[in-house]
Amino acid sequence: MSIAKTMVSRRGFMKSALAAGAFPFLPGCATFGRDKVRIACVGIGNRAAEVIGCLEHAGLFEMVALCDTDLEGPQCAKVLAKYPSLPRFTDFRKMLDAVAGRIDAVTVCTPDFSHFPALMDAMRRGLAVFSEKPLAHTFEECELLMAAERKYGVVTQMGNQGHSGKNYYQFRHYVETGVIDVSKLSRLVAHMNSPRRWHKWNGKVAAFPTGEAMPKGLDWDTWLGTAAWHEYSKDYVQGEWRSWYDFGNGCLGDWGAHTMDTMHRFFSLGLPSEVKIKDVSGWNPFVFPMQDTLVYTFPAAGRRPKIDLEWYEGRTNRPKFGKGYKMLVPGGAIPASGAGTGTVKGELPPGKYFTLSDGTAWEGTSHANPILMCGDSNEVPDYPFKDLPNDDPRLDHYVNFARAVMGQEPANSPFSVTAPLSEVFCLGCIAQRLNRGFKFDPVAKHVVGDEAAERLLKGSEGTPRRGWEEFYRV
What we know:
By secondary structure, the protein is of the alpha/beta class. It is built from 13 helices and 15 strands. It folds into two domains: 3-163 and 400-413, 3-Layer(aba) Sandwich (Rossmann fold), CATH 3.40.50; 165-388 and 422-458, Dihydrodipicolinate Reductase, domain 2 (2-Layer Sandwich).
């Protein structure tokens, strides 16, 4: 009997046990004697190939099937050569039908806009899911994925790897022990100031690209998925989709998950009551602006006061830092991938920065734990928590996912945590698209007094495309 089917039949028992306090978390499935999680991959080129390499390195997964809409593209060659005997598909729906009962989990590493239908299909089948970040393209899709997580009781994980790194454990320790006193938070900043793919157009995009001849073997209809119909263009594929409002979540979706994630979680930010936008240049209605600053206002929660989170993007749109700031470039810092032109000497690395009312200031690069930069001493104090050794399996996001699927520990970055974070990105993308801010009701989860922004909670006009509506029903 498959893991998925077994857990569907046991779900009622497990939920009852959870309510009784018998388990610290609810596993979506367990391997029942097997030492590896059987997995199928939706997306195998570019970033997806890197994820597959991470799964291999974890040593806890067995590859069962591969899916990519462009199997004949050179970006897929490495993975296909490594697994020549595995069944391969261009349509995730056909793959999941074909391997039913033979897999425990699915990875979805495709463009931002196409995560949602593959995740929903897998979750409905009782399968654990691992999604690249951001979780989904629209606010509504994030809501539906959380609802599906609750309904189907499966293990979920989003690929913000810092949520299983030292950043995660150290930040959590600082907040839980009061080293960072959330009642004194006064300023939150996240930033990403590297060049991006859409900068090459300098904000001068007057229309969608003209249709071109498609590469041989590309399943364009499935690549589009739920998105409104567009003629094929090379300016949409191989990572270029990130530039367009209709397909990507811009810089926020790419890097917010690495710079905002621990602040959002451990400061209990939730959803904002207002999103403002300023310092915009290179705006147009098709691709993301050359630069902008977003300011999210988060209502008070628990001991934390009402607070703004400032987001800066654009080559020259850098935040102003306070006394004691130093440019941190730790060994092994993750480069700003997808920029198209690589990194620039002297470039400010993506990161986070926050201050407290007692005068202390903390900073960190995207995946790194925060370091005290200004306070009673410029030295990092010797706190009781010691850094985990580099080979500690708790630091591996994929090991954590496998263990969660096996029922051994909870996932560090489940959809219940990462969907609200991704919703923050979606709201920011709406402000960028409209080039204006708006107020938001974080309880009712609706835009206040702006019909255009409210409509964009569901995405671009024409979505979901006809024939894909079924995935929007939980």
